[in-house]
TrEMBL record:
This is diguanylate cyclase. It comes from Dyella kyungheensis. Its EC number is 2.7.7.65. The keyword Transmembrane applies. Residues 1-16 form the signal peptide.
Amino acid sequence: MLGILALALLAFAAHAGTALTGAARKVMPGDTPQSVLDAYRRGEFASFDPHLLQRFSRPGLGTWVVLQPQPPLVNEERVLSIYPPPLVPVTLFDAGGSSLTLSLDDSLASTHGNGRLAYRISADTPASAPILLKIEPGTVNHAVASFHLQPWNEYLQTDSQWLAFASACFAVMVAMALMALCLAMMLRDSTFAWYAGYVLCYALIQGVQTGYLFHPLELTWLAGNAGMIGSSAVALSLAFAAMFVSRFCELPRYVPVLQTPIMALAVGMPLVVLLDNSQVAVLQQTVQALLTPLLVIGTLLLLGAAIVAAVQGSRPAGFFLVGWTPLLALTALYSSQMTGVLPDVTWLGDACLAAGAFEAIVLSLGLADRALMMRRDRHMVQELADTDALTNVLNRRAWTESMRKLLGNAGSQPIALLFLDLDHFKMLNDRQGHAAGDRALVAVAEALRNELRPHDLLGRYGGEEFVAMLFGVQQNQAMQVATRLCRRVHRLDIPVNQTGLVLSVSIGIAMREPEDTVDSLVERSDLAMYRAKLAGRNRARLDEKLETPPRRSWPRAVENDRKG
């Protein structure tokens, strides 16, 4: 962003060049270049400062403009540039009687400025000769423009600076929009799509107004439609902005009273575009009369909604205001120049372009913040769905799903499953109440979690039953862990009754075999746990087929052999 601002300072710098005086007059029937110059010499033109923005009336036959270079005069190759470029053709007449007509959307092979109309004046033309221009009439009532005459080398430097600045701004806007579209598909959140639509429409507006679509992009197939494209992009940008603000600033939550008019605005602006392109003169005139008031009302409505939402506590609304307010202020100032105010602020158009890039970055940061909040919220919801509310360990469903994934990815690594059941828990509940039972479950779960490794999978299977998956441990290690867990729970000294009986745990152990599933492992470890219960509780037992059969004494073996 700092690079864009640096380029903006270069682009906004005043065009030094050659001093000029200017004069203008409306085109009259029968005018010729020579008769116009004669009228200029007789003082029949209205004078103006060509370096300031001059307001030209487009209705009628057009406008004649005469520019007179002032000393010091040097016969050299020069370039006359018109900024901002008007949407109508402008013709330059030279002293030899030939002419060159340029328009914003043409694709002539001759020199054409980037972001301006540029006419190359050869060194053969006397430096003191007046420069005659004819601005053709157009459909818009008024246009503003300033004129600059520069040496060829100085013009090339100015043009390259503006091209670098504009390219950086457009690149930022397009990159942010494409990133938002990707996030919209990944997160399935239409807020990112509305943002992308708004930013792309604003980039299209600036591309038309600056002529960037035609020079340097040379999209010649858009020639002749600049006005229609620009007005359509303006209306659609407001529709996309309305949808974006509604979702991004959470208007149904913070400003429900403005939700309906903003949605009406979002639906109505595309209808305005359709009517404007209907080719029906009455409808087009009606739309042109209503478009500006609708834009003003819609813009103020969105701004007011964002302010109220921010005051009510909407964090995204703050991002929107930081990004949108500078652009809105500059756009309002730029639009006011059409009425003739601020004629000396010639850089407002480029400032709007820079503000568009700044807004795209700020809103992208807001969207990134929204994505992080969505991710955090989803993580919290997932945690709540996966965690047992009482003991804060995995619940049965989450533990089973995690166990199934681990079994599928474990390869040949050994896996031990421990099935734990608290001894005398029902007696504790009956004698001390469920609150005491809940406290006991919480204490046991905490003790188990502290005793196991972080990557061991601990879960509550139901009631007073827990399960633990030990990854990468052999049978003897699993038995050692289970014995340690028995001792740890017993040392909690949770009383069951008044006779000194304390809470303990019985544990069954099963080792995974190649054909095992989660259900088969749980079943075998559950049976082993019951064998531990039958053996006296507060102990661990292996799966029956894993235990070594007890050795018989020699005398009994001999006696049995004899009986056999």
